[in-house]
Every structure is written in C-alpha cells, then in structure tokens.
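Standup notes
- DV: blocked on the single-chain target, sequence here:
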Amino acid sequence: MSNPIVNHLVWTQLLLAISAEVVGTSCLRLSEGMTKPIPTILVLLAYAIAMWLLSKVVLSLPLGLTYALWSGVGTVAIVLVGWMAYAQQLSQGQLFGIGLITTGVVIVNLNH
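- DV (later): unblocked, structure below
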C-alpha cells in the first residue's frame, strides 16, 4: 500500500519538473543563442531544477512512465507557449499531433 502523502509529493515534483523545463525552453528563444546573460541564466537554472526534480521522481515512479509524462506534457505546454507568447501558427496536422500526444499521456497515466 502506498503512502498518499509521498504519492502526492512525487506527482507535485513531476509537475514542478515539467514546469521548470517549460520555463527553460520558453527562455531559449529569449537567450538569442545563449548570448543574452539573463535569459541564458534562466535557461540553465530552470533545466537544472527540472533535472534535479526529475531525478527525485524516478526514485518513486517508473522511469518510462516519468519520462513519457514529462516529455508529453512538456511538449504540449511548449507548443501552447509558442502559440500564445510568440504568435506561432499551428497547422491542423500539428493540432492533430498535439491531440495524439495528449491522448497518449492520458492513456499512460490511466494504466499506471
């Protein structure tokens, strides 16, 4: 039987790891090829936090499940950031792909 507090903490850590990765990736464009100091520091710090949190999560959740959720949710979030923050247009094919990723994340999570 799993401890619900530990279980909640692990999922919170995974959500924070995804959020940190999204922040880091969002700042990549602002860093202008790592030539702008502040955005570059934000990228490196956010990625370091994401990796540290992810390393904690894989102690409690299977590696494959962790990575599937981290990469899938992160990918969808970054597409949304690109659309909202950088006015990047989304084609029907891209929207379909995002739908497939979202469906896959749900299926993986339901079968955990």
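- Follow-up: Residues 4-30 form the longest helix (27 residues).
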